[in-house]
Amino acid sequence: GGESVAVSNPLVVDTSPPVMGEITCSTLNTEHDYSSAVLSCQWTGVYDPESTVATFSIAVGTAPADQSVMSKTTLAERLLYYQTPPLELLPQQPYYVTLFALNGAGLENLITSEPVFVDSTAPINEGPLFVVPNYVS
Questions:
Q1: What pLDDT score was predicted for residue 108?
Q2: Considering the chain, what percentage of its residues have pLDDT values greater than 70?
Q3: Residue 114's pLDDT is what?
Q4: Distance between CA atoms of residues 89 and 92, nearest Å
Q5: In Å, what is the CA distance from 125 to each residue of 31, 36, 111, 121, 128?
Q6: Are 99 and 56 in contact (CB under 8 A)?
Q7: Which residues contact 84 (CB under 8 A, 6 or more apart)?
Q8: Global confidence as pTM
């Protein structure tokens, strides 16, 4: 009789969610409009050693993990940065950006930024700016 041998790759069972590193965010006021702002965020150290990170999602709220300002939005690509669309944000109100990472096994973890505040003051015009090339003081 014939004999056959089957060989397969080792099976990896992922029972843990992604490892979450750090997220940092800042505000970018939209030009000439101080009632809305864009939140710009980047993150490092987010990975999954067993099944990789499949998707990232972002939410914005007034408390960690809250989604009251911008509901959880899945990013089109596995980026390491994101800028929100212009959001109506109040001065002196802390805002938190939450990053969600979903791995290939369907397990999710999250990390929340430090509070971000909006600067709603217009820039101060202190007169003309003069640029002197090659000036050494």
A1: 97
A2: 81
A3: 96
A4: 9
A5: 15, 21, 39, 12, 8
A6: yes
A7: 38, 39, 40, 58, 60, 70, 97
A8: 0.78
Torsion of CA 124, 126, 130, 136, to 10 degrees: -90
The whole-chain average pLDDT of the chain stands at: 85
Among 53, 66, 54, CA closest to 113: 66
User: CA–CA separation, 66 vs 135, rounded Å?
Assistant: 51
| Chain Cα centroid distance, residue 17 | 18
Q: What is the tens place of the pLDDT at every residue in 25-84?
A: 998 865 555 567 899 999 999 999 999 999 999 999 999 999 999 999 999 888 899 999
- Please say whether the beta carbons of 48 and 100 come within 8 A: no
C-alpha span between 64 and 116 (Å, rounded): 11
Contact 86, 111 (CB under 8 A): no
Q: Which residue has the tokens 């843990």?
A: 16
Determine the straight-line distance between the first and last CA of the chain, rounded to whole angstroms.
93
What's the pLDDT at 97? 97
- Tokens at 1, concatenated: 């009789």
